[in-house]
């Protein structure tokens, strides 16, 4: 006789409702983006790709997409290099002071970005980094560090520290140990962290609203203006492109994890 | 031994310097400005007790965050419960339903809700066509819209810590209770719920502190009429150029969040909240 505890019918129905609430509103942008009308609506007579054509034919949108991409790449490099090295150092030293360092690295997740954005607005004005590619890349890179620290620390938790000691014992230098023993073993964790840091920068809006205005006009910034000014179906097309892109990155992460676990 | 460690400390250095120069310093400056502008002293903080508009923003924020946390916990619990008891194959699909919204841009989600809920939106149109209502309902650009969007954003954050603590529950306990003839609800109330309580508290803390500083969703779905703390701060700095007031509220926000964390760090393991691996 099977005594396993299973959820009752009502619970299952309620769980389905919650799942639908989570997923359905996001998927609604797909039919809306294919509308043949000039305003936000479901397709009336036929499906149309004209709103995609509008977006992909617009220099402003393409420029923002390209700029966001470059910023996200630069920010990811900063976050991955700093975050990975820091996580390894904290893991190896593992004492009270490194616990504090690790807590400090998590601050960008805990403290609301509005607080950081306001501070940075004033701070960057003084050192002339407002509305600059470098300024936004640094801000996104620094706030991306926590994602890398978390994923790399998780990967390190599964790493046998005796391997490192053995390598050092046989005379490997620190950089040799890093390159040939530690980094290859935690590579999947680093890639996960890189993907999350990339998505973080790619989607980030609050900081950009404060420290960028004209020369740096990222994709989220353009979407924000679009939502506040004119709600046209081109926005839905952009939304779909963004969702597809994010889903692609997530699937990549899942596939990599599966390969690692296999 | 000490000299050997120097190399490892060097690894920490780049992140430490970056963080200090480009994260801690700007935030420290926010704290400093709140005490120095427009004039040195506690003048800005006095407004907490004297200004009605400051108090109104705080009350609105606390009310919305409390409602959001309660709803997100309820919905998240139902979902996590289902996932925890699902078999391996089904579990993967359910988790995907949680992870996908988690990583979709917050802007895209707010935009989707506007599409659905505005006056000529899909929900109002559908209701009008079926004849259930004759006038469009005011579903967005008010507190209702904000809460719908915020709960939608927060449910995945509630599910993850809940699920982590539910999966630690030994299924044999539940099977034993069932074998002894306990009805399903009794098993839930007497065994499952108490054992999942740490996850519930962790999820509540996480959702509440994330909600406190929320900017984009309330700004888009509130339509400028219902102001929460984050949007109010932005308004003070960008439009009204009242740095003192804006940074004062930012400081209050940070202190409120850190205080919440400090209080609950005695009750729950914070590593459970932020999932720091080791």
Automatic annotation (TrEMBL), chain A:
What CDD domains does the record point to?
Answer: TM_PBP2
Which compartment or compartments is the protein found in?
Answer: Cell inner membrane; Cell membrane
Which domain of life, per UniProt?
Bacteria
Recite the UniProt keywords alphabetically: Cell inner membrane, Cell membrane, Membrane, Transmembrane, Transmembrane helix, Transport
Query: Could you tell me the Gene Ontology terms of the biological process aspect for this record?
Result: transmembrane transport
Q: Which InterPro entries match?
A: MetI-like, MetI-like_sf
Q: Which residues cross the membrane?
A: 12-34, 65-91, 103-124, 136-159, 180-199, 234-256
The record, for SUPFAM superfamilies, names: MetI-like (SSF161098)
The parts of the chain that form a coiled coil are none
Which PROSITE patterns does this entry report, sorted A to Z?
A: ABC_TM1 (PS50928)
* This protein's GO CC annotations: plasma membrane
- Residues of the ABC transmembrane type-1 domain: 65-253
Bilayer topology annotation: Multi-pass membrane protein
Q: Which Pfam families match?
A: BPD_transp_1
* Sequence similarity: Belongs to the binding-protein-dependent transport system permease family.
**Protein's name in the database:** ABC transporter permease
Q: Which organism is it from?
A: Falsiroseomonas algicola
UniProtKB/TrEMBL annotation, chain B:
Q: Which InterPro entries match?
A: MetI-like, MetI-like_sf
Keyword list (alphabetical) reads: Cell membrane, Membrane, Transmembrane, Transmembrane helix, Transport
Respond yes or no to whether keyword Acyltransferase is given for this record: no
Sorted alphabetically, the Gene Ontology cellular component annotations on this record are: plasma membrane
Identify the residues that the record assigns to the ABC transmembrane type-1 domain, covering every copy: 58-264
Q: Where are the transmembrane segments?
A: 56-81, 93-114, 144-164, 191-220, 240-264
Q: What is its main location?
A: membrane
Topology of the protein relative to the lipid bilayer: Multi-pass membrane protein
The keyword Iron-sulfur is assigned to this record = no
- GO BP term, example: transmembrane transport
Q: Which residues form a coiled coil?
A: none
Q: Where in the cell is it found?
A: Cell membrane
Q: What family does the entry list?
A: Belongs to the binding-protein-dependent transport system permease family. CysTW subfamily.
What protein does this entry describe?
ABC transporter permease
